[in-house]
Amino acid sequence: MGKRQVRIFRKDIFLSKFEIEGKTGHVIMADHVVHNGLILQVTERHLVLRNPRFKEYPLNLDAIEEVVYDKETDY
């Protein structure tokens, strides 16, 4: 099985909430800081991320540049 990276840009994050909730990925902020962890929840204003140390962070959607996660493929 292969993997492909899926990139979701700021304007599409809330529309893709059901696709990304529950997935592990990278959240790239506008100031180029990258957060890694499990995406717990997406609201109209925040994305809640749990990092590998189990600390939860509500990240403001306006400060997020993009969300990147891996998707397994059949080929």
3D structure, described in words:
The chain has 75 residues and is mainly beta. The protein has one helix at residues 17-20; strands at residues 2-9, 24-29, 34-42, 46-50, 56-60, 64-73. It has a 6-stranded antiparallel sheet, with no helix packed on it. Strand 4 (46-50) and strand 5 (56-60) form a beta hairpin. The radius of gyration is 12 Å and the shape is globular.
Keywords:
75 residues; mainly beta; 1 helix; 6 strands
CATH first level: Mainly Beta
How many structural units, i.e. domains? 1
Distance between the termini: 6 Å
Order of helices and strands: EHEEEEE
Number of strands: 6
From the alpha-carbon coordinates, what is the Rg to the nearest angstrom?
Answer: 12 Å
Give start-end ranges of low-pLDDT stretches. Answer: none
As a percent range, the share of helical residues equals under 10%
**CATH topology type:** SH3 type barrels
Average the pLDDT over all residues and give the rounded result: 95
Reported CATH architecture: Roll
Major sheet characteristics: 6 strands, antiparallel
Structural class: mainly beta
Strand order of the largest sheet: 1-6-2-3-4-5
